[in-house]
Amino acid sequence: MIEHIVTAFQQTSWLERLAVVFGIIQVLLSKNNKVSNYFFGILSIVLSMYVLFGAKLYAEIALNMYYLIMSIYGWWYWTTNKVAKDRPISRCSKEERWVVACIVFGGFFLFYFVLKGVTDSDVPMWDAWVTATAWAGMWLLAKRKIENWILLNISNFFAVPLLIHKDLYLFAALTSFLFVVAIFGFLKWTRIMRLQQN
Q1: pLDDT tens per residue across span 24-62
Q2: What are 81-101's pLDDT values in tens digits?
Q3: DSSP 3-state of 55
Q4: Spatial distance between the Cα atoms of 4 and 118, rounded to a whole number of angstroms
Q5: CA distance linking residue 18 with residue 38, whole number of Å
Q6: Which among 4, 83, 85, 128 could bridge 112 via Cys, Cβ 3.0 to 4.6 Å?
Q7: Which residues cross the membrane (predicted)?
Q8: What angle do helix axes 124-142 and 107-118 make, rounded to 10 degrees?
């Protein structure tokens, strides 16, 4: 088993390695509430889409397209919008929780039926769940809502075994790293929220 993992790491493409490095930089900057996280995120996303296409993870590609759109939106929102620049980290309102539920469950069913009916995916339910929960998390990140870390970690929790199943060990290692960083991101944002309230 270990020999198989080592061999898989050695056969990892440079595109996957670069996507992982840029992804690590992005999440560390995001944890520290830095707008530059979006630049590195965009680089990681574009490279990841190419790698995921080869693995036939079509919902993950759609997720990355969404990440790309939300990253461009988040970058614009944080840099050009005076209200957004000064917007503090906060918790979801009741209305925003409903939006999150709609994104998660609506996205899950949409992706599941598309993957099942239109693609040759062998993991439609799994891929759809990872994608839908991450969609909601990215929307919350752009809005600077602390719950983004919870939704992203639900996605990460299910994504790690999915990526291992697809022999994308470097992406699985990155996702495991993101899982840990998201825990610290949640704790740091909690501290920032407390400071904002004082």
Answers
A1: 898 888 777 788 888 998 999 999 998 888 888 887 788
A2: 666 556 788 899 999 999 999
A3: coil
A4: 32
A5: 16
A6: 128
A7: 38-55, 61-78, 98-114, 126-142, 149-164, 170-189
A8: 140
Quick one: which of 143, 160, 149 has its CA closest to 188? 149
Task: Supply angle C-alpha 55, 65, 141, rounded to 5.
Answer: 115
**DSSP codes of every residue in 144-168:** TBTTHHHHHHHHHHHHHHHHHHTT-
0.90 surpassed by pTM: no
What token pair was written down for 161? 């075994």
Amino acid of residue 40: F
Query: Which one-letter amino acid corresponds to residue 83?
Result: V
The position carrying tokens 């299910």 is 158
Residue where the block lists tokens 């598309």: 114
CB 198 within 8 A of CB 46: no
Contact between 133 and 151 under an 8 Å Cβ cutoff? The reply is yes
* Contact between 41 and 21 (Cβ < 8 Å): no
Taking 60 as the threshold, does the pLDDT of residue 127 lie above it?
Answer: yes
Both tokens of residue 164? 């291992």
Residue 99 corresponds to which amino acid?
V
